[in-house]
Amino acid sequence: MNERRRPALPDLEAARAQGERLGAEPFLGQAVAALSEAVAVLNTHRQVVFANPAFRELTGTPGQLIGLQPGEIFQCVHAAQPEGGCGEAPDCRSCGVAQVFLEALDSGRAGRRECAIVGRRGQREVPYDLEAAGTPFRLGGEEFVLLTLRDVSQQKHEAALERIFFHDILNTASSLKIYISLLQSSGPGEAGRLLADLGSIADGLVEEIQSQKQLVSAENRTLQVTSSLISSRGLVEELLSSFAHARSGGIVNLAPDTESFAFVSDAAILRRVLGNMLRNALEAGSPGGPVTLGCAREGSSCSFWVHNPGAIPAETRRHIFRRYFSTKGRDRGLGTYGMKLLTEEYLKGRVTFTTDELRGTRFTATLPLRLP
User: Fold this and answer.
1) pLDDT digits over 2-11, tens only?
2) Distances from the Cα of 117 to the Cα of 88, 243, 245, 254, 361, angstroms
3) pTM of this prediction?
4) C-alpha to C-alpha distance for 74 and 137, rounded to whole angstroms
């Protein structure tokens, strides 16, 4: 799709004048305002010049919208990038709102696409899953696009959770069935080893159920945080032990510069975050490849990190923490998103990563020494 060159943005007064002309149209103004779906009219500069109450409610913007672009209204994390702002940044190529706008304006035909936007409300990132529709029209010799947004977050999230949950549970149940079959036909000497493996599989099944339950609670903002005094060394050794008995096929080593210190946080949530980091690192690396776990104290904060020697492809990096994004298939995609959600919203820390061909990939969870 070739985008025509857009002229420079007009001043705010010009956008307001367009909005007043549209609002004065008896049918258009009243019809759009009465719709239950979120509807806005964009001019050729991708500016909102008219919006109904449902659009304001969806975007959480009770104030002035006229003259703003959709990314600015949602406070999209890419809208302020230096490449050109909303609709012009590299990430906008996969944005449904930008695509339906260009299709409508450049082809003269209506279009519909799914759209995922990571916006902000205060200091908190908010993921929006939308269905965007764009319809072109002309009025008084000027071109406009009628943009309709429908929130599909709940349906998409429930469907994704169901797929992931049943995918993981079925995999574990299949393993249980195989091991039970082997146990039934095994000799006395082999039975003990198979029973130990069965116990490990059962533990994994419980872990998967608890993980999904915790993520649903975190999404609904009902997850309870229980602070306790934690030994950093004890925590990492517990994780090393659990992964040593897991059937992951990889090796988890303790970083030589690991420090021992005490801090206050929620041990169960932190174990979930670090467990996800370790699983992702083991799955991303070569079979049997080394993965390193470590921690350190840094002033009033502490950090836990997981390293593997592989590098994340450049086209994947910008989507790492996006909900439902995964390089492992349709039934995955809440691992890194869940890590970020749990760490930032409940442990009051942050999750970051670095990656390159020479140094490999390192995910780091940085936390306060005392959970506020």
Assistant:
1) 444 444 455 6
2) 15, 35, 39, 38, 26
3) 0.54
4) 24
